[in-house]
C-alpha cells in the first residue's frame, strides 16, 4: 500500500513572483504554474514561472505537471486555482508519463482521477487486475464511448477506501485554495 500524507497536497497561492528570475509576475500577466515533487519533504510544491522564463526553456527540477494561467488582479473574485481544463491537462500529462511515475505521482494521479470522477469529467468504465495484482480503473472522458477511444487506465495505489476519500477531499480543497 502507498503511504499517504494528505498534507502533501497543499499548494500555495500564486506568489506573484517568478521562481526562476525572482521578477514579479504582474496582475493580468500569463504565467506557468508547475507541480514539483520535493523528495526532502515528501510533498508536492507549486512553483510559478513567468512566461519569459518558461519560453526560454527554464524548468524546475522534478516538475511532473504544469498549466498556464493568468495572474489574478486584486479586484478579481476568488476563483479555484485550477479549472476543469487545467485539471484535465494535468491528468493527461500524468497518463502520458505512464509507468515512469513515482509512487507519489501515481497516488496523485489516482486521487485526481477520483476528483474528476466526482466532477463528472470522467466516468468509470470498469476495472481490471493489474500486472502486480492491484486494481486498475478503466476511465473515459465525459462523452466518449468504447467504439471511439481506448479506456484510460489508472492503477489503484492501494489506499483504503477511507484514506482515498479523505485524501481526495483534501486534494480538492488544496486545488481550490481552501487550505
User: Would you list the SSEs in sequence order as H and E?
Assistant: EEHEHHEEEH
Question: Rg to the nearest angstrom?
Answer: 17 Å
CATH architecture of the domain at 103-176: 2-Layer Sandwich
Query: Mean pLDDT, nearest integer?
Result: 78
Structural class: alpha+beta
Count the DSSP helices. 4
Tell me about this structure.
With 179 residues, this protein is of the alpha+beta class. It has a domain at 103-176: Double Stranded RNA Binding Domain (2-Layer Sandwich), CATH 3.30.160. It has helices at 51-55, 84-97, 103-118, 161-176; strands spanning 30-38, 43-50, 63-70, 122-129, 135-141, 152-155. The protein has a 3-stranded antiparallel beta sheet with strand order 2-1-3. A 3-stranded antiparallel beta sheet has the order 4-5-6, covered by helices on one side. Strand 1 (30-38) and strand 2 form a beta hairpin. Helix 2 packs antiparallel against helix 3 and helix 3 crosses helix 4. The protein is globular, with a radius of gyration of 17 Å. Mean pLDDT is 78; it is low at 1-7.
Keywords:
alpha+beta; Double Stranded RNA Binding Domain; single chain; disordered N terminus; three-stranded antiparallel sheet; 179 residues; globular
